Amino acid sequence: MDGALSQEEINALLNNPGESSSVGMADALSDSEKDAIGEIGNISMGTAATTLSSLVNSKVDISTPVVSFATWSDICDAYERPCVFIRIAYTVGLDGSNILVLRENDVKIITDLMMGGDGTNTNGELGELHLSAISEAMNQMMGSAATSLSSMFNRVIDISPPMADLIDLKENIDESSIDEFLSGTFVKISFKMEIGDLVDSEIMQLYPVSFAKEMCQNATNGMIQSSASSTPEPAPTPVPQAAAPQPTPAPQPQPMMGQPMMGQPMMGQPMMGQPMMGQPMMGQPMMQPINVQPAQFQTFAGAEQPVYGQENIGLIMDVPLEVTVELGRTSKSIQEILDFAPGTILELNRIAGEPIDILVNGKYVAKGEVVVIEESFGVRITEIIK
Prior knowledge:
Elements (H helix, E strand, L loop, with lengths): L6 H9 L15 H26 L3 E3 L3 E5 L1 H7 L4 E10 L3 E8 H11 L13 H26 L4 E2 L3 E5 L18 E10 L3 E9 L1 H22 L92 E4 L7 H5 L17 E5 L2 E11 L2 E9 L2
Antiparallel strand pairs: 1-7, 2-7, 3-4, 3-5, 3-6, 4-8, 7-8, 9-10, 10-11, 11-12
Helix pairs in contact: 2-5, 2-6, 4-5
């Protein structure tokens, strides 16, 4: 295989990244770069696991990643059965792609859980339905992972819709037809994935070496920018300022004509709530002048009703409701009703073929049409009334 390394060369590269090899110094990853790639994978796949957990409605655990170099032959040896290769290409913020490798049975379980099953319906071959479902799952998973990378790199990162293919590694396949970087040595990030009691397997992410180095550099730059933005700027030297003018107290109202003279109460009583001028109330100290204003109240006319939080509708899910199907109506006099007999035909106010009404607890909610299910009548809902 052109450009591939032997296992001895790969081990030498991993153990001694500073030494020369057929890969070249530019393709070697230092220990710090391998740690950075592992941390990037840990953060992105941790976010992806949370997204997958909501999709399959089961607990998803993904272990700490293991970073290594690999070749196409290593992947073929690790996966004996057919597996699914999912290509994720970055369109904004990063220039490159990576491949996620899942086992065939794991894809069947994830697809069954996404469709509301219990994860045991894995019989039959993997088809287009499975590939479409896993592509959508990976789109949401890696989309959330891209959001995490955006925070880490301090830039917007986006992906194109993932492409999923079923690959039988037992056959002779041109690996470059999947992605060009698979023809040489690439970075492999291995994760252990558990989904409840159904999946206990290994998934892999495959990166070109150059793309892995680019992500390490972006992560370093992102941390530098974050540190620079979080460093507090020196406080400016305070400039002496003139003392702010004190607010002038509001003038007190002057007594009007007809009011008592200073120091004399009106009608023998002091003003309500205030002492006589120049004299404190009995047992109280001298009070300062108070600015009294009329109280202002909000009018309720036309005011919007407060919006309350959504209650837990699950508490009433088991409350039974009566569903009624109404074919039509008519009005008859008492005499006509008394003349009813077997064989009497009633003409309703509805044209043949017109949709019938569906009522829930007497409330008109939908329209439908009558169908026959084996030996019983049924109603197919054709329109929901808003």
